[in-house]
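Appendix C reproduces, verbatim, an entry submitted by the partner laboratory led by Prof. M.T., so that reviewers can inspect both the input and the predicted structure.
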Amino acid sequence: MESAAITEEIERLERELGDLRSRLENDSSSFSSLEQQVADFRSRLAETQESLQKQESMLEQKRSELAEAQRRERLEAYTQDLEKYRAARTSVSDAAATFLAELDAYDGEMVHLRRLRDEMRDVFGDDERAAQVDAALAEEDEALRSTWAAVLGATEWRQVEVPPEPAVEPVSDWDDPVANPEENGDLDEDLNMRAAEGRTARILDYFNKT
């Protein structure tokens, strides 16, 4: 009876050992499969990282190419900048002519008002009417002080002589006298001369008659 029990125990142990060996084989196979999967994942991850770096490098290169292309297009479109510059310069010249004409008219009104005041004093004496004209003439300093300061500040530095820029061969002849820097300078000088002559003539005429 004892040997039978031992035999039965041995058979049970052998069965359990067989089961364990089978499980070991299955687990080993599963582990090997997992190791292969991990290796595959690592390989795929390395490939993905490499592709990502290449794509980022290509994108950065294309962005640089785009910036350079846009820069070249902007530089090649310089004629538009020239047109805008000439239009702005012409606008300034026209505005200056208008301003000088308005200033000329203002000076004429001021000389006329001074004459009127002197005639009023001759006829009415220093009464309230002549005082009102004097007060109006005195308003110039308060009403136009900031205007003269702004005009002087905007133009004074432009009269400072600067070293001439290196000569550049012209790409084409300009038919527009306003667009030609030399002729434009003559135009500005002519405007200044005409405005100064008009104001000076009226002021001298006023003082010669008083």
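The chain has two domains: 1-76, 80-158+177-209. Additional entries are available on request from the coordinating office.
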